[in-house]
User: Which sequence fits this backbone?
């Protein structure tokens, strides 16, 4: 596989093209769709950059919380089943913090300008 440009660099290049070249020439609905496209490309770039680390951190939290091993899908399923069965509740040590950290990681990828993200991160530290 080629090393450059990376997928993240390609996504960024397309995003910049839309934002700097195409968008100034668009109006109305097309301009709106251009902004949506730029936002989607930003999510893709952040997912490429940060997604694996966020998933690795989530898996580590779930392994510690569940005292179990497995891939992220199996761990998420086990957590869901434990919550559904009432085996884990908001009073379970570490559960709420693990869920908040996972949610904050997702928001950082999908909506990094979300007003409460920094405040949420500060409460987790």
Assistant:
């Amino acid at each position: 596989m080629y090393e450059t440009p990376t997928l993240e660099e390609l996504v960024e290049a397309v995003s910049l093209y839309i934002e700097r070249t195409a968008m100034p020439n668009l109006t109305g609905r097309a301009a709106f769709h251009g902004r949506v496209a730029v936002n989607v490309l930003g999510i893709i770039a952040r997912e490429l950059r940060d997604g694996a680390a966020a998933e690795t951190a989530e898996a580590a939290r779930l392994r510690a919380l569940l005292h179990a091993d497995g891939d992220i899908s199996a761990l998420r399923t086990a957590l869901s089943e434990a919550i559904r069965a009432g085996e884990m509740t908001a009073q379970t040590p570490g559960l709420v913090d693990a869920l908040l950290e996972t949610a904050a990681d997702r928001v950082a990828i999908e909506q990094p300008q979300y007003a409460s993200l920094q405040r949420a991160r500060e409460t987790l530290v």
